[in-house]
Structure formats: C-alpha cells, structure tokens
Design a protein that fits this description.
The chain has 143 residues and is an alpha+beta fold. Helices cover 37% and strands 15% of the residues. The strands form two sheets. Strands 1-2-3-4 form a four-stranded antiparallel beta sheet, with helices on one face. Strands 5-6 form a two-stranded antiparallel ribbon.
Length: 143
C-alpha cells in the first residue's frame, strides 16, 4: 500500500513539473516574440530618422538569400541586412549576430518592412515581422 502511495505521489510530482516546464517555455517564447516586436518598432523609428538624415537606409551591401525554412518573400523584391552599426543609440534585444549567422534584422528595400530573419516560434507558428493580428497576442513586459 505504501509503495502505491509513493508511486502515485511521484507521478503527481512529475506531472506538475511537466506542466510547469511547458508553461515556462510558452512564456519564454512569448517574451522573445514581444522583444522582437519591440526591436522592430525601435528599428522602424531609427531607420526613418536615418532615412531623413541620409536619404538611404542603413544596410550592408550584400543582398539576402533566403533558405526554404525562412521567410518566403516575393522574388521580385530586394532585401538587405540592416547595418546596426550605422544607427546611433540603438538598444535592441536581437539581431547582434553573436551566436548565429541568421540572428539579423533585414529590410525590404521598397517597402522598408523589417523582418527578423531567424524568426520566433510561438504557438506553433514562426513570426518574422509584426503581424496585424499581433494585438491578439498577450503582451508581457519587455524587461
């Protein structure tokens, strides 16, 4: 009888730990998504100012090539990596290319739409840019 109770308690504890782990991962991914969206908003503002000052967008010379697992852009449009070093007083969470060559922000040359190349997975979907239905996503603190 004591063995059955012990096994039951262990199963309950393991179940609780699994639930906590799943919840923590979901919250972590939501925080990442919110941080990417905050970065994109910051970059939109900074790039608009840069464009007014210099008449061009702050990009690196190389056009972005897309893999099958990344953003699926229109082939006729041109995308560049944003040169973050050209933007003054920039504080962002991602796009610093420290660990991953795909950890960059890119911009569409024509529309100036900004994308996070690597994307953030949340609720089974990968987000690359701000989406219209983002208002439906629960917001959390950026800090």
């Amino acid at each position: 009888m004591e063995k059955k109770i012990s096994i039951f308690i262990i199963v309950i504890i393991i179940t609780i730990l699994i639930i906590i782990s799943i919840s923590a991962k979901k919250t972590l991914n939501l925080n990442k998504l919110n941080n990417v969206y905050k970065d994109i908003e910051t970059l939109e503002d900074k790039i608009a100012i840069y464009y007014l000052d210099y008449g061009t967008i702050p990009v690196k010379d190389k056009k972005i090539e897309f893999s099958e697992n990344s953003i699926n852009p229109n082939d006729s449009e041109i995308y560049y990596e944003i040169d973050l070093d050209k933007i003054e007083n920039l504080k962002i969470f991602y796009g610093k290319k420290v660990e991953n060559e795909n950890d960059v922000y890119i911009i569409n040359e024509q529309s100036h739409t900004i994308y996070y190349y690597q994307g953030i997975e949340y609720n089974g979907k990968t987000y690359y840019a701000k989406e219209l239905d983002y208002e439906k996503v629960e917001l959390v603190n950026y800090q």
